[in-house]
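Incident log, entry 3
Record: Iron ABC transporter (290 residues)
Problem: checksum mismatch between cached and fresh output.
Input:
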Amino acid sequence: MTYTAWIILTASLVGLSCGIIGVFLILRKMAMMADAISHTVLLGIVIAFLITRQVSGPSMLIGAAVAGLLTAFLVQWLNSLKIEQHAAIGIVFTTLFAIGVILISTSIGNAHLDVQHALMGEITFIPWNTIDIPLIGTVPQATALLSLVLIIVVIMVLAFYKEWKITSFDPALAASLGIPVILMHYLFMTLVSITTVASFDSVGAIMVVAMLITPAASAYLWTDKLAIMIVLSGSFGVISAILGYFIATGIDTSISGSMAFATGLIFLVSFVLSPKHGIMSRFAKPVSDS
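Fresh output:
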C-alpha cells in the first residue's frame, strides 16, 4: 500500500472504532467522559515511561488503560458523593491531565513525549513504524494495533449488545432484570479506555474526542434505531477520516485537525438535512388546519 493509503486506513480504523463506541457514550449522556479519558491517558503514558523508560510497547498501552479506568472510577466515586457528573468529570479531567503535563515538563527530559504530540498526534509518521505479521507482511504498528482494537470492539458489542442497550436506555430496568449494571459500566469504560489509548498516539486527543462524539451525534439525528445508529456512526467516522485527509493535503494543514473538522462538517449537514431531527424536516412537515 502507498504512504497515503496507510494514513487513510489507520485514520479510518480510528473513526470506525470510536464511532461504534461513541454511540453508547451519547446514549448514556457521557459524551464528556470521552474528552476526559482522551486527556487523562497522558498521565498513564508518562508514568509507564518513568517506570520502563520506553516510549512504545505494551507498557504504554497498560499505563494509559489504567489511567482511563482510574478516571472512570474517580468520576463514579465523586458522583456517589452527590457531586454532579459533569462537575466530577471536570475535576478529575483537569487534575489528572495537569499532573501528566507537569510530569512531562519536570521528569521526562528529552524523550519523545510532549503536550503538542498528545493533542495532535503523529499520524504522518505512522507508515514508517512497522512490524512484520505472519501471512500478512509488513504493516504499520499503529494500523495493526487499531485493527486488533476494532475486532475487540465489534466482538464486545455483539456479545453484550442486549446488555449495552438496556443499561444505556434504562439502568433501573437492567438492574431489575439481573444485569450487573456497575460491572457493565466498568466493562464499557475499559472498552472506551482501550479504544482511546490505541488511537491516542496516532491521532492525538483532539481527533479522538471528535471521533468519539461527533459521528455518533450525527447518527443520532438520522435514526432512532440503535443498530442503524451504530452503522451510521462508524460510517461517518470513516468518511470524516477520508474527507479530512484530502482537506489537509489540499490546504497544507494538520491532518488530525482536518479530520476533526470533517466530523463537524458531517454533523452540520446532518443537522440541516436529517429527515427526522434536521432543520429542513421542520419546514417539510405539513401545518395542520386550526
